[in-house]
Here is the input.
Amino acid sequence: MSAVTSTPSRTQSNPPSRPRRFRKSRQNSAGVALLAPFGIGFLLFVIVPLVYAIYESFFHSVTNGLGFGPAKVTFDGLVNYIHVVTSGTFGQGVLHILLFGIINVPLTLGLALILALLLDMKTTPFRGFFRLIYFLPYAIPGVVGAILWSFLYEPQLSPYTHILASMGAGRVNFLSTQMILWSLVNIVTWEWTGYNMLIMTASLNAIPQDQFEAARVDGCGRFREAWFIKIPQLVPALIMTGVFSIIGTLQLFNEPFVLHAITDTVSSNYTPNMYAYTEAFTANNYYYAAAISVFLAIVTVILSFGFLRIVQRRSGL
Amino acid sequence: MSTNAVSDTSRSLHGRGTLAGDGGNKNPRRSRHPVILSGGERPLSPWQRTGLLAVLFLMGLYFLLPVWWLLVSSTKNSGELFSSFGFWFGNHVNFMENLRQLFSYDNDVFMRWIVNTLLYAGVGAAIATLFAAAAGYTFAKFDFFGKRLAFSLVLGGMMIPVTALALPLYLTFNSIHATNTYWSVFLPSLVSPFGVYLARIYASTGVPNELLDAARIDGAREWRVFTSVGLRLMGPSLVTIMLFQFVTIWNNFFLPLVMLSNDRLYPVTLGLYQLDSVSTYGGAPPDVFGMLVMGVLISVVPLIVAFLLLQRFWRGGVSAGGLQ
Here is the structure.
């Protein structure tokens, strides 16, 4: 109880909002202990695997003679990487995700932007209701969403094919070579538009109201208000969602992988990540797969580094 | 003695504490009660209003129809799935039969998948949240050597997508012959750099230093200060971290795909994928479809319900991730 009676004298002497210097040594050892569970996990399951994959990517497995006996592993330097970069299969995968990204990123973000702006107007009816519905697909795991859409694409099963046929468009096959890219884009757009919309909504809510008052006094209409006040303030959110979408595109795997199971139009090497998977588990070529994986990760990190700097500058952390 | 004093302090300050704890969620709060200005927007003309509603409604259809198809289809048998119109019910109600088939398939393996998913994503997210909270709290409230570098590493880790880590993780676990185990999927899920990032923000805005000092003067050890003051004030925001980590684990299909070959260890996503690829349209026994549709429905509904119930928490996370 003596501890309680000593409380009146507390904290007054400390200047507010300074980093703690109180009983420093004990505090520091406690800090290390609190950081340890995450820190060890981060080391073992992020740093170590990355370093190990980089190490592996420098090797090459050679089978002796006719392939009997244990394979010999030799150090190869950057040879695997040269193979990756010059590989036609990898190039084709890159082409696929490039095309996919060029269509998907502007489509998803454009749609998200329009919906965020429409739902930001106070005169729009049922705003909360619509916002919830648009966000709903995000709650569905990517693979499950892809399986769901694979039903809706299957020619014999698809109600969309049915509706289009009854409208005189003929029997559209969403899994055909001409349509497959759009079908993939559709799955990802469906899953992510609502999420991106919410990020933009959060940004819109942060705009001070007096800016609109001033604009209205000057006779600013809805479109000019959106164009001159709202969109410029959304630029950081647009950059962020853009970088996330590009990362997602580079790493595209789940959706084409699921469609690959039901149609030959999507090959087993359709995206770079699928190529890495196939090399590792069909060709058993771990070293080469490691090189693909590391190369992809490096490209991804370089692209997102710009975003990192934006985050640091904005939050001051 | 000292424990008494701590609980005393935290109780007496609890009223103030909950207010401060809401600091991290300030933005979404404001969004739900927008300021309506008297001289605000002009009202929409009837034409504008109808046009706007039509656009919003059509977009709603786009997002909702697949889920509606799923609901309707779960009531059909496999024959009617193909023969009747997809967006409306068939003549027979086969819901219970599909359910029975699904859960009795392959020695009740679907129940195993559900339990596994709860283990990987549920327990995994809960522990990951505790780890992230402790780490974020440390970053916010302590000074130590190499702090800036350590936090840069965390931010860097945030940028590495889980798909990019799956294959390196497989190679690492393979080198110690630990693939195809529960641990190979569970352990990597305990690491959430995004959670640490959020927790640091919540701890620095929602946990006042004065309260920590008060507890220290009352004789509490740092561990007690963290659990009884830090964790308590971070409380509501921890739900946000947990929700996001749950979704991350539940969405991470690549990791279990490469790690697991024993289908008794699968999470629901991988199990459904396996069912889907087994059913390779046309060749498979037709009754697989009714079962598979039911499986997809069951894996979708709980999370939708959870999201509806926990709206204010994910909004907090989205705005923190988007703004801070």
